[in-house]
Amino acid sequence: MDQAINIDIGTSGIRAQLLDLTDSSVLRTAILSRNPLPGANVVDHMDFAISYGQGTAHEILISAVNSLIKNLKPENPKRIAVCGNPIQLSLFEGVEIRDLAFAGKNALEKMHVKPPERNGHIVSGNEIGLCADVDVIIPPSIRHEIGADALAMMIKTGFLDSSETCMVTDYGTNAEMALKVDDKIYTGSAAAGPAMEGQQISKGMLATPGAIADMQLSAGGWQTLALDEKLRLVEGPKINLREGTFKPSGYPVKGITGTGVIALMYAGLLTGIIKPPHIEGGRIRMEKGITFTEEDVVEAGKAFGALRAGHLTLMHEAGIAYEDLETMYMCGASGTYVDPHKARFTGIVPATPKRIVQCGNTSLELAKDLAFDPDYLTCLNDMKKSILANHIMFASSPTFAAIYIQEIAFWNEGMPLEKYNTNLERSGIQPIPKKLQENIIEKRYERDIRELGKSLEIMEPKCGFIATIRCSGCDTCVKGCPEEALSRENESFRINTARCLGTACRRCEERCPEKNFSISDFKLDSKDVENCKSNFAPV
Amino acid sequence: MIRHIDLAVQKIFEMKEKEPAKFKKLIDEGIMIGLGVDLGDRNKEVTTADQIKENNRPKDLEYAAVAEAVIAGNRPEATKLTTGLLEKGKDPTDLVLNALMPGIQTVCELYDIGESYVPEILLANEALLGGVELCQEKIGDIPSQGKVVSLVIVGDLHDIGKNIVAAILRANGFDVVDLGRDITVEAAVETVKAEKADLVTGTTLMSTTKVGLKDLAEALESEGVPVACGGAAVDRHFVETFANSVYGKTPLDAVKIAKKICAGKSWEEVRKELH
To answer: Are A231 and A207 a contacting pair, CB within 8 Å?
Structure first.
């Protein structure tokens, strides 16, 4: 039986599948519930790679991918196809990333960085350190800023073939978005932040079993819906928002995922319990030890705001009105599981499209297509040349800045929507529609991953960064780690890289009273690297 | 004794006639004290938006109109009114200090009590700048609390935070040289020397670029000009890893830092007081 593997390398997790080439079916799925690199977003991942060596970052990522491959137990893999944003794919392949690391040109000119081509190509597994020496297919970036993941969402939803005015968004940590008007495409990438994937929320988690993913109004309160071991929605605890109580029942929950955050914000805003940036009573309790805090409201607000500002910026640049939108395609786990009504209420989907289509994880699907048919790569490379894309860099767009500043005031300062709209109109930008349009909702797949195969395994990356440090053992560093990523046994220290917040945090280093702790002394644990490798012999 | 009470009563009646508002307020306060209300707290609470506007409103009606235009964030109006007043021969320095500045001061005070929001500060700042630039053409430098250079460090373009900092510093009477974004250490040092600045504010949103702030602070050490650092990627611990710098979490922190530095305090002292 000939097999192949498709992998989606995301900023908040990695998904991989084992495919049967003889009947084009999915055999098994394995998910890494976090990205193994230190840091909570791609910029932090890049900063880690630049500060501690791109080689180290590459090795961590490859080890994690190896552990997924091992878990899939392939027997006769012919090839591996990957997809993801240009940063993750470059770190995976071990090529230049510095051209993606700085928004301003001055830093790049000073370093004389030459951006790589990033065409679709094939490398050998051995060459990049994979345990399987097979062809590894890497899809192209359309342009410097528009990666293979953006290409995937445009192709796999039908957006690219549509003749309507439509929009597509991949609801992830870095929300890729595109708007199509006639044959012109406007793209952007909003740093929505990990809140969309449930991370950076105090009790947040990826869309994995035990995660609250939705909430529905029922007799006696809001009924939470959680994901079970097969990623289906089942009833969890019931929450009474007004009384601030919960009734523990149903499926045991461990935390809340991005769509759960959207549902909770919707419920809170609708009932008036949440008045950004405040929560009546200071917090919402969902289950013993699981609460949603005011900091979470602000964190979610930042993500919602970046999405709404991004969408409006694209429409403004394309010169269309909200009412012109025919279809909205939603991708990614959050885009699939979220209730579109709640998504529109919170602003992460425009209020006006006549049709909303929920499309699942498109990145993994594109990788699957490539794994089945490697010749498709030529087709993608041709597409790269023909797509007329106009990329709007939100970081330097005055339109985005003018809108985002309203979002900051709306979510962080409680500015009313009326003022938001007045301010927009003064800047010559159309206001946010207050009324939600009637629309058709089309849910194409039950899960974000279209086909799971016979089994689904969810694992945590176990890559360790180790060092021997002679000190008094006061454990200020261990106790100070906000993610419980650091542990110590006598003089041996160990950092769980996937949990570590990376260069954005460094509390362990900065708080050491003996000034003895230095992250640069840490090395990748070679035992972990070996353990990740599988022992099958590729043919 | 009796004589004193007589006098007091007489005064009270006089006040009731001449200043009925003050009289009523004192009576109300008396009742409240009788009810056990702590007036110290109460007074703070009742600072209303109207009171703030009233306290800052210039007496001169033409000046008040300029201040209104700034509060409304109406740059064309602020520019038009300022031009008119300058043509009438009004002193440009006086115009800045007593017509334009009270406008932005009002917006900032309203912001402090939650009656105004960041977008309005930015709009008011735009209106203020329209007027200030016209006055500056007439007289050159306007007396200020000190000179601050504001920038987003090399490699980064995210400048919303920097714009807010610059606006609030201006509102507090600082002369702000806004260098913009993606600014190299060399360009910043050159401006600091040319402008004889007292302080630099450097911000960044990206973790990949924050090291530029360290380079900047170190490059400016010999000039004796410290760097106030902030932005999403920056925190106190990071700033404490290098000298000649102070961390600020909010735009209002930038004002605190600038006031202290311009009053002659060293960065070490300011850090001790604020970190």
So the answer is: yes
pLDDT interval class at B218 (50, 70, 90) = very high
Q: What is the ipTM of this complex?
A: 0.73
Q: How confident is the model at residue A385 (pLDDT cuts 50, 70, 90)?
A: confident
Of A107, A502, A507, the CB nearest to B209: A107
CB atoms within 10 A of CB A538: 16
Average pLDDT over residues A67-77: 92
- Residue pair A36/A48 in contact (Cβ under 8 Å)? The answer is no
A389-391 and A184-190 as β-strands: parallel, antiparallel, unpaired?
A: parallel
Cβ-Cβ contacts under 8 Å for B59 (sequence gap 6 or more): none
Q: What does residue A384 show for φ and ψ, rounded to 5 degrees?
A: -55, -40
Distance of alpha carbon A500 from alpha carbon A505, whole angstroms: 8
For A230-339, where are the alpha helices, taking DSSP H only? 258-271, 294-318, 332-337
- A162 Cβ contact list (under 8 Å, min separation 6): A180, A327
Tokens representing A93 are 């392949």
Extract the tokens encoding A159: 């957006």
Q: What confidence score (pLDDT) does residue B168 get?
A: 85
In percent, how much of chain A has pLDDT > 70?
Answer: 98
Answer for the pair A45, A91: CB distance below 8 angstroms, yes or no.
yes
Cross-chain CB nearest to A105 (options B73, B182, B237): B182
Average confidence (pLDDT) over A440-453 = 89
Tallying the residues shown for chain A, one arrives at 539
Give residue-wise pLDDT tens across range B91-118: 988 998 899 989 998 998 888 888 889 8
A292: tokens are: 């949603």
**Alpha-helical segments (H) within A393-525:** 398-412, 417-426, 476-480, 507-511
Report the C-alpha gap between A144 and A207 in whole angstroms: 30
Give the span between the Cα atoms of A438 and A50, in whole angstroms.
Answer: 49
Over 90: is that where the pLDDT of A25 sits?
A: yes
Task: Specify the DSSP element, H or E, that contains A526.
Answer: helix A526-532
Are the C-beta atoms of residues A201 and A299 closer than 8 Å to each other?
Answer: yes
Amino acid at A174: N
Structure tokens at B225: 């000009």
CA dist B141 and B125 (Å) reads: 18
Q: Is the pLDDT of residue A194 over 60?
A: yes
- A16 near A534, Cβ under 8 Å? no
Burial environment of residue A504 by CB neighbours within 10 A (0 to 12, 13 to 18, 19 or more): buried
A interface residues, B as partner, C-beta within 8 Å:
39, 43-44, 46-47, 50, 101-108, 110, 393, 395-396, 401, 404-406, 408-409, 413-415, 419, 423, 426, 502-504, 506-507, 510-511
Q: Cis (ω within 30 of 0) for the bond into B20? A: no
User: Does A393 sit within 8 Å of B182, measured CB to CB?
Assistant: no
Residue A155 has, within 13 A of its CA and on its CB side, a CA count of 22
- pTM of full prediction above 0.90: no
Say if CB A92 and CB A128 are below 8 A apart.
yes
Instruction: Give the residue among A33, A19, A30, A35 at the shortest CA–CA distance from A71.
Output: A30
The candidate with the shortest Cα–Cα distance to A3, out of A16, A17, A15, A19, is A19
The per-residue pLDDT for B97 is: 87
Residues in chain B: 275
Inter-residue contact A498 to A48 (CB < 8 Å): no
Bridge partners, residue A80, by sequence: A5, A136
